[in-house]
Amino acid sequence: MDVTGLRIALFSGNYNYVRDGANQALNRLVGYLLRQGAQVRVYSPTTSTPAFEPAGDLVSAPSFPMPGRGEYQVPYRMSARLRRDITAFAPNLIHVSSPDPLGHRAVSYARKRNLPIVASVHTRFETYPRYYGLAFLEPLMVAALRRFYRRCDALVAPSDSMAQVLRDQRMSYDIGIWTRGIDREIFNPGRRDMEWRRSLGIPDDLPVIGFTGRLVMEKGLDVFSDAIDLLQARQVRHRVLVIGDGPARSWFENRLPDATFLGFQQGQDLGRAVASMDMLFNPSVTETFGNVTLEAMACALPAVAARATGSECLVTDGVTGRLIRPGAINQFADALQHYCTDAESRHRAGLEGKMEADRYGWDQVNQALVDTYLRIVRQRQRGAMAAASPVP
């Protein structure tokens, strides 16, 4: 079999109703699969106001708003209508991208029909409780995730560091890499626009510290704010530029009253905003890859990031930026101060980051996942089953 023989049913908790790095990667994947001649059908919650048009055929799954985070939908079951649609589509491979109730039902559906299952890991869900005072739940979440992933034939992680975390957690016996690519037309140093910066009231010689991402507490907004407080106390000249929106925006604006908040940006506007920063500060530990870090590096910016799975695979400490122990406020402030006050080091690290980012292209990384699909399908055709698991 080659790629044209693939019929993939993709299950997602959020394919296009709220924009994030995970669903943009999934949409790029589907677009690539369709261009290569594969058949794909996507099952996900939908809304009347999606963030962007979906790639491929999207079938709406029954869902309800997530408690406390109403912008997200929880797909809670596989309805009879969905089951009929999946059966009519007749997939020969199931791809699940979220361990939600629909993902569990999709895995059960596939196992009953002896269909191969590939799961992609996009978020470190087990780390979320610590941001809401519920850290004691983390071991329970790890156990629940292990039960889900061990029922799949293979996992794909976006980085070597995340793959190792999954191995250490004993999530699967077959873990591959599906990394992320970069759109070099949008993210490149040529997008830097000093006139645009001036329109925001930013002098040319004032270093800009950027934050890019969805404004939710699990992105480390508290750590970001505390480090900026230290810079201000040390009287280090800088301006904070925030790109993104989300439920914690009001909290973040109150916490950083001197920052410039651009809200949600996309396309060429996003590329201009990122390239017009002087460094990226990404304290989050929840990402499995770090799309925003790669985008900043592609624009020749140094990255100051938490030493966590989302950044360890991208940032070379002391070369393309700094990797700091998660939550180490003083060390984050030290790294930011260094780049704010040493333009030569900032420029040198940015150039090194640009060279690293040039290695990432979307077609290459998506083809790696296609190769995994084909390998798993061929294994099943030869009669091989998923590696033995204690979970039925």
UniProtKB/TrEMBL annotation:
SUPFAM superfamilies: UDP-Glycosyltransferase/glycogen phosphorylase
GO terms for MF: glycosyltransferase activity
Pfam families reported in the protein's UniProt record: Glyco_trans_1_4 (PF13692), Glyco_transf_4 (PF13439)
Residues annotated as domain Glycosyltransferase subfamily 4-like N-terminal: 20-185
The name this protein goes by in its record: Glycosyltransferase family 1 protein
Annotated organism of origin: Sphingobium phenoxybenzoativorans
